[in-house]
Structure formats: structure tokens, C-alpha cells
Amino acid sequence: MAKLAKKVAFVQEESEAPVTLLLAMDKVLPDKHQSRIDFEEEAITELSVSIAKIGQEQAILVNPAKGRPGFYYIFFGESRWRACKKNGAKMILCTVLKEEYDGQLDPLRVLRQSAENMCRRGHKHFELVRVMSLLLQHQEKINPKGFIGRSVDMFAETNGKSEQWANPYKTLTNLHPDLLKLIDQKGSGLTFLMGVELARNAQNEQKIVLEEAIKMNNGGSPAMLQRAISIVSRRYRIASGKHVRSRPSERRDEYFNFFKKLTAATNQVSGNLTEEEFAKFEMDCLSYGLGDRAPALLSQAKQVVEFLQIRIDALKAFIAKKK
């Protein structure tokens, strides 16, 4: 092993193709800007056990460190490097790329690392939000025209995903850091979609919106909390003058008043709803708006109420005759 290490202890600069060789562990440096932030200890331990049993089957990719002869920065494969280090390895198998790297932040490099990680163990949501945020912050460097949409497209395409998949991560770049951390924490109760809805509000309103939604939900299911967040979030956006698609408040209120009448009418023949059931029914009505179809649906709904009232009157008359 020592003889082999001496033979491959340097990279031939004139070589165009990447060279695979053994490098000393202390000469290989982690990239502090890389896309993965949270290296789960359990996963590293499992990988170290596997490498200890069957060896390092795949080389890690490294770049020569610019201005630091003999040193290399990890491009892909820091988990394998950590696992080898955990095993006490002195050497590690590396494929050395020709391009040098100075250790400074490079958004496109981080993006490529995120794509590689997505093909392996995946990423946590807050890590992908960081990548998206970097692309948006440095979009003029990446794209001279500064076209935001290009950053989103690039994020989606590099990760092999659609624009619909990428857009929520763009929205999440506005989520308060404290709330963003909760999305990936088990048992926090805050889901990815809840975070996306909260991120549509100003950061100084997001925690207030969440608190009010939790009170409105009153211990209900996660699905009901999602709806409560949507309702409260929408109310705050309207109050702050932000453009909100469809469901003007007056149409929503008129539609909801109809449901109260409909519920009151149907309860006479189907039994009464409990307060909890009615509260859930109310949240459904508020969260699923009608948009531009409100007038037509409202007209149809009124006809249903009138029809039900006729049926109720007929039923009462029939019962009265039986008596």
C-alpha cells in the first residue's frame, strides 16, 4: 500500500483526463460550502461499517486546491471521506479533476453537489432551500440578465425535477429561519406544505399566523391545521395589501352564509352537527373558495336550499297527517 501511495502521490498536470489515485487523508479537505449541511451520524456509521467490510468501492471526486500544492478539496463524496476517517484510514481513493478550486463559495458548484446528493441519500428541505437561495442571490453572476426564472429552471433541471417541484423551494426562501428548521424535525408538527403557506407572508407575521392557526385548529388533525394556516395566512396577506388570487372576502362570506342556511335546513331531517363538526365544516368552506364561479354556484346553492325547504315542509305535512 505504501509503495502504491508513493507512485500515485501526485497528479500529472499535463493529463487531460481525471486521474484516480490514493491520497493521504490529511491532504483531502472538506468543502465548507457544499450543499449537504447535516451529515447524519447514523448514516455515516453504517457507511463506515460497509467500507470496513468490503473496502472503498467508489472513489471520491476532488479538485486540486488552488494556491495549496498537494492539497485537494472534496467535490463529491464527503460522506465516504467521513466514513473512512471514522475507520481510522490513512489513505483514501480519489479521482482528481483537472480544474482547481480555491475554497470560495461557488453557487453552481453547490448546485451540482446537490444534484449528486439527490441521487444518493437525498437532501433535507432546509438544505435545498439554501441552494435555491444561493442561486437567487447570485443570479446576476450566473445569468447576466438576472432573470429569476432561469435560476428556478436551473435548480429543477440539474436535480432532474420539474419546475412545479422547484417553485415551492423558491417560496420557502422567504420562510423565517426558525420555522424552516422545524420542517425537517420529526414531531415538530410543521410540514413542508405548511411552511410553503407561511412563507407567503412577511417574515415578521409568520409566527403570529402559525400561533393563530394553532388556536383555530384547537388540537385538530394536521390536515385541519394546514387549512387553518391557509385561512389565517390569507387574511394577513389581504390586510397587508398583497394580491391574493380569487375568493374576494364578500363572496366568501356570502357563500359561507349559504352553507349555514343549508346546514340548518338539512339538520332538521338528518340530525344536528356537533360544534366540532360544524367548526371543521366552516374551515372547509373558507379554505376551498369559489373564485370567479362564486355567483353561479351561489345561485345553484340557493335553489338547493329552496328545494330542501319544500321537501322538509312536505315531510312535516306527511308526519302531521299520520298523527
Descriptors:
323 residues, Conserved hypothetical protein from pyrococcus furiosus pfu- 392566-001, ParB domain, disordered N terminus, 15 helices, single chain, 5 strands, 4 domains, 5-stranded mixed beta sheet, alpha/beta
Describe this entry's structure for a reader:
The structure is a single chain. The chain is of the alpha/beta class. It has four domains: 2-96, Conserved hypothetical protein from pyrococcus furiosus pfu- 392566-001, ParB domain (Alpha-Beta Complex); 105-173, no CATH class; 186-244, no CATH class; 249-312. Helix content is 59%, strand content 7%. A five-stranded mixed sheet has the order 1-5-3-4-2. Strand 3 (60-64) and strand 4 (72-76) form a beta hairpin. Helix 4 (107-118) packs antiparallel against helix 5 (125-137), helix 11 (203-217) packs across helix 12 (222-239) and helix 12 (222-239) crosses helix 14. The longest helix is centred in the last third of the chain and has 29 residues, at 294-322. The chain is elongated and about 100 Å long. It starts with a helix and ends with a helix.
